[in-house]
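Quick one:
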Amino acid sequence: MATRAAARQAFRCEDCGVEVAKWVGRCPECQAWGTVSEIGTRPGLTVVAGPVTSPARPIAEVPAQGAHHRPTGEPELDRVLGGGLVPGSVVLLAGEPGVGKSTLLISAAAKIADTGARCLVVTGEESAAQVRLRAGRIGALADALFLAAETDLAAVLGHIEHVAPDVLIVDSVQTVGSAEVDGSPGGVAQVREVATALIKVAKTRGIATMLVGHVTKDGAIAGPRTLEHLVDVVLSFEGDRHSRLRLVRTVKNRFGPADEVGCFDLRDDGIVGLPDPSGLFLAHGANPVPGTCVSVTMEGRRALVTEVQALVGDPQASTPRRATSGLDSQRVAMLLAVIDRRLNMPLATREVYTATVGGVRLIEPAADLALALSVVGAAEQRSIRHGLVAIGEVGLAGEIRPVSAIRARIVEAARLGFTTAVVPINSGVHDMQIRTIEVADLRSAVDQSLAEN
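Output:
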C-alpha cells in the first residue's frame, strides 16, 4: 500500500509537452483540446547524483572547431543556414506540398557529394525510382550520394549504420514511424520519437541532418511544438504555385542569423538560386504607366526592389470590388480610407485592384507610400516620375513615418539605376548617391512624385 501511495499518475500534453497531475480536456499551457494523455506512473523524488559524461570546464577552454560550416553548394541555401551545414546539426525544412522541398534538398545533396562527402537520402513519401528520375532530370547524380526508401525508424537507423554518411536527409519526418511507439506515422508521439532518435544519432556521430516537415492548413509546422525546440535550425519554404519564385526564410538558427531569406527560381530542370532577384519584381517597360510605383522592401537583411500596381475603375452605383494580390487586404483598405479622407479623393464608389509584380508578397509598412502613390496615380491617370522609388509608412493622419534600414534600401535602388528616392522626413540620407526627397505627409509625396498630366 505504501508503494502504491508513493507512486502517482502523470499526464502530459502531446502538443507542448507540459505535465499535469490530473487529466484535463484542455491543456492549461497551449490551450489545445484533447492532447493530454496519461504517461503512466512514476515514483516520488528518487533522482540522485550520477556520473557525468565530461567534466565542466571554463567556457573559454571549450574547443569550437566542431561548429564550422560546410557549404552545400547552393549559395542561397548557405545564406539562410549561416554559411552551410554544421556537423551534428539538425535542420528542419517545412513547406507546403509541391513547393519544391525535395527538389532543393536532392540538388544540394548531390553538390555536397561531389565534394567527397557521403550523403544519404531517406525518402518515405516516394519510391527510390521516383527520386532517381527527378535526380536525373535535374542533374543531381553523384557517386557518393546514397538513396533509400524506408518508413521504419529501425531500418533508417540501419542505413545510417551501414552508409556512415556525413550528411543525412529524411523526407519526411512525418512519414517515418517506430514500432516501439503506439500510433500511426505522423502522429504526435511518433514524430517526437523519430525526431528524438535521429537527433541523438546526429549529435553522437556528427552527422549534419536535414529533416523535411509538413505544414498544417494554417501554415504551422505539423507535429508537436517541441520538434521546433529540439532541432538547431528551422527553415520555412514559401512559394505560390502559380509563380516560379521560392523563398526560404530562417525561423530559428543556432549557428547564424535568424532573419535571412534565400530566393530561388523553380524551373523544369531544377531549382536555381537567385543572388539578385530584384529584377523579377519589376515590370520592364520603357515609360512609366499610371498606377505603378516602385518601392524597396526588406526580406530579412536583404533589400529587394519591388513594384506595386493599382487599377481604379470608374464610379458606379453598385458595390465596388476590392481585390488584392501579394498585399495585405486589411492594410490596402486602410490606405484607401486615408487617401479618401486626407486627399479628398472619393474611392468608395470605385473599384480598386492592387497587386505586386513577380508573385512577391509585401507585408511590411515601408511599401505603404508606393501603394498609395500607385492608387492616386491610377485614379488621376498620372504616372510616377521616371527613375523614382518611394519608401515610407503611411499613418492614419496621412503622415509619412520613418522605416528601418533606409540606407540599405536606397543603396539597392541606386544599384539598379534609380535616380530619385522619396523618403520620410528626417531620414538623414542626404549624402546618398541618388537624389533624395524628404516628405512629411501624403499630400507632399503626391506633389513630388507624380508627373503632371
